[in-house]
Each structure stands twice: as structure tokens, then as C-alpha cells.
User: Fold this.
Amino acid sequence: MLHIAIIGSGPAGYYTAEAAQKQWGDSVRIDIFDRLPVPYGLIRTGVAPDHQSIKGVARRYETTALSDNVRFVGNVTIGRDVTIAELQDLYDAVILATGAPRDRPLDLPGEGLANIYGSAAFVGWYNGHPEFAELDPDLSVDTAVVIGMGNVALDVARILSKTRTEFAGSDIVAHALDLLDTSRLRKIIILGRRGPHQIMMTPKELGELGDLDRARPHVDSADLPEPADDALLEPGIRKSVGHLRRFAEPSGGAFFGAHDIEIDFRFFAAPHALIGTDRVEAIEVERTTLVDGRPVGTGKIERIPAGLVISCIGYRTEPIAGVPFDERGGRFANTDGRIVHGLYCVGWARRGPSGTIGTNRPDGFGVIEKVAEDKAAGAFGENARDGGGGFDRLAAARGLEVVTFGDWKRIEQAETDRARTGAPREKFVDVAEMIRALG
Assistant:
């Protein structure tokens, strides 16, 4: 019997478990660990709450989770409750699928001022992640600056712009919905160092900005390349740039009322410094130009008033004691998913924060191929390991309050029962609350 421990219950973790089942059938036992009592990682706390169709992929993971040879082991923190070395003693293979849950820093003067957030924290706040539930951003300001030109920046701008009615059917948590309802924002600036042809925004997400009740996206037509240049783009980016061209069209004199919000795209503008005394009051940006596709500063500095700044420039994997780490790449040091003997990584923990949710499926199958190669080469030896049984004894000895998948289903039902009208659930935003829901 082969025993595998997967650390992380997000898409990468469950796709890897699915791959292991297909590789070894009933001859493998898989434990999927998570530090939270609830599974699905990015699907639960990263995907925008108004994108419920994307969250539906969790049904596929549930099929895997309910298999006889797969266990969810929630409420267990690796490095605190149990070490990697201990898991390596218990399991033939340990696979890190922890994602990249930490914000990449801006590394700018003034970054420590109040009301400046990274997207992991801000998205976690409105998605109900227990670590960020107490964030309490100040939305009484006039202007917010969102730094970044990817889909996360679009999610943040959209969430900040929506009316309460537009959140119908979403699972945005109550504390965020109530605070957004009091927002006095009138302008959201999306800031990017490069130009329209270099955006990482997908057409669907970009197009959504044009359908909001009270928000109006705007692009300066002077920032757009010649239309003929769009023909050289990949189809998806070409369609996204088409949305930007639509946002640059004259509004026909449409009046911005007192409660409307302008979403202003600022291209060729690199953040230079964050200005303020105790809290952010403005952001300095440097005008850029592209040289061989790279943004180069021109020396021209502009100061933009801003009472709220959200950085959406990427993520980093959180290091784990005893595991080699690539500081520059913000991920575990690995070669094609192999870290050291018996220790592997997959998903964002392997390749960094890139690709879509679906990208993790081939990645999961790829790392299981490596495990299979190592098994065939005799890397795991012939001595039977204790696997999940050994972990259960260790957990009992340490008094760990392990949450099973059956427990999660009870938490899920409690969240469904307490949902506001029209919402699929009202998430618990505190781990103690989740445990209390188990009775």
C-alpha cells in the first residue's frame, strides 16, 4: 500500500489526489491536510464571491474527497501541529500543494501606511478568510488606486463598485457587504506599468466592468495602440483590448451622478512612492515607455490623490521550516516538482502564481508521474509506512482537534442555513465558530 500526504486542499491538492487514484486505484491511501477546518482553498477564499459558476468546480473535488481511499484532515497546521519531517516518516510521499497565499510586497517608500492592502488580504476580507476577517478597510475616502493589470485587479475594482443589489446570488460575507454599502468611493484607478497590449485580463472579467449599474470604465484613447496592431495579438488578448477600446469611446455626454463611480485605467504608470502621514493620502507614479516590451521610467512623476490602495501584483508561497525555498521566485525550490527525496510540490507552490484553476490538473498528474517514477526506481524502499494510521495516533497524543470531510459537510450545512435571502451561504469567518458549528 502506498501512503501519500498532500498539504493543501485547494485545486492543486484535489487534482493531485485524483491523479494518484487513477495511477494506483485502491492501492493508494491519500490524506489531504489543511490548516483550516474547511476545504477548497482558493475556490472558497480566492475566487470572487460573485463568480459562483467558477466555484462550482468544488463539486468535482467532492467526488474525490468522498472516495474510500481519500481523507480530508482539516484544522491541522503543518510546521506547528506536525512537522514535514514527521510526515515524511509516516508517508511514502509528501506533496506540498499550499498555493501562494501571501502578497508579494510592493517594496516602495510608504508601504506601511494605513489603508494600504495586498490583494490576498483584501480578497480574503470580502471572501471570509478567518485570517483577514478583521481587516476593516476605510471606504469613506473618495479615490482608491488598484495596482495591477490582471484579473485580480478587475475583481477588486468590480467588488468596490457594485451596489448591494448586484451582490444578489453571491456569497460575499456580511461584514464586507455591510461596509461596502457605506462606501463613499467615487473613483477607482487601475494602475499598470505597461500598455493595453500587455494586460493579463481575460475578456469575460474585463467585459463585466461595462455592465455595472453605477460604475463607468474609462480608458484614455491616447494610451491605445493603432487598431491595426491588435491583429498581432492572441485571440483572447485581442478581445480584451477590444473592451478597452469600447471603454475609450465617447460616452455621448452621459452624466456622472453623485453616486456614480468612475473606473479609470491608467497605463504606462509605475508606482513610485506612497505618500501620507499615518495613512495613505496619495501615490506617486512615474510615466513609463516600453523598450523591447519592458517598461522603462521616463523620469516624469505625477502625484495621484488616493485614500485607499490595493496592490494586486502577485503572490508568494509561504515557507515551511525544513523545506528548501526559492526566495526570488516566491515558491519552493524544486526540479519539475521534486524537492528532496520523498518530498514534492505542485501547483503555485511549484511554479509560482501563474495559470488558471484548470492549469493545476495537468500539474497534479505531472507530479504523480514523478512519484510513480520514484516508486518504480525503489526510492521508497520496502518497509511499510504507517500512513494515516500513524498520523491518527500522533494527533491523539497531541490533542489535535482534527476536522474530517463529514465534519466539513456539517459546517457547510450550517453556513447554508444561516445564509441571507438569495445567497448560497453565509460563511463562518472564525475558526472557533466553525468548530462550534459541529456541536
